[in-house]
Amino acid sequence: RRFLLYILGLSAVTLLGLLFWPPESRGAAQSENSRGPRRYGLAVRAPRPSTVGHGTVSRCRPNAQNCVSSRDMPNTSCFEPPWRYPSTMGALQALQRVYEAVQRYPGPETSKIITYKPGKYLYAEFQTRFWGFVDDVECLVDDATHVIHFRSASRIGRSDMGTNRARMRKLFDMLAQEG
After folding, report:
1. What is the C-alpha separation between 5 and 7, in angstroms, rounded?
2. 63: left (phi > 0), else alpha (psi -120 to 50), else beta?
3. Checking CA distances to 13, which of 69, 84, 124, 176 falls within 20 to 30 Å?
4. Which whole-number Å values give the CA distances from 149 to 8, 26, 66, in the listed order?
């Protein structure tokens, strides 16, 4: 009986969130000129980590289940290979394409670009709509090897159920489809 009440309560909260969701916010990415992702739903907040936004891409914590990085060792669970852009493309153009892909990201969250240094570094935040969880995404260009290293990590929680890995794969798939 207690389980049934729990399920009914959870369903009611979800339904209310969907009913009162502003339709203009669905699927719309936030630009760098906006005030940031609007907080809807429950808005679980956590402060921005002091380790992000400084123009570098670091490794994930050992055995982290809510982080993925191209800087990790290939035999770890956090590793995902970096995006290799064509040698005919310069660093400026490659990171510009990542910038545009982040802005039009079609996932179930909003995005906001926090720091953009053309041809060098990009830092963005992705926020889930209902719960308000924020993930930090950093991209760093290595023009000598024609790769873009990245790190995507959830601010809170132990596991992201593969969300960060799926997001980065989707972003890089979008870039690969464009050529």
Report:
1. 5
2. left
3. 124
4. 44, 29, 18
Q: What is the DSSP string of 88-136?
A: TS-HHHHHHHHHHHHHT--SSEEEEEEEEETTTEEEEEEEETTT--EEE
What is the spatial distance between Cα 140 and Cα 12, in angstroms, rounded to a whole number?
43
Quick check: helix, strand or coil at residue 22?
coil
Amino acid at 166: A
pLDDT score at 133: 85
9-52, pLDDT tens digit by residue?
877 767 655 554 444 444 444 444 444 445 444 555 677 887 88
Question: What is the SS3 assignment for 25?
Answer: helix
Helix (H, G, I), strand (E, B) or coil at 161: coil
CA 52 to chain centre: 13
Q: How many CA atoms lie within 13 A of 8 on its CB side?
A: 5
SS percent in the chain: helix, strand, coil, step 5: 30, 25, 50
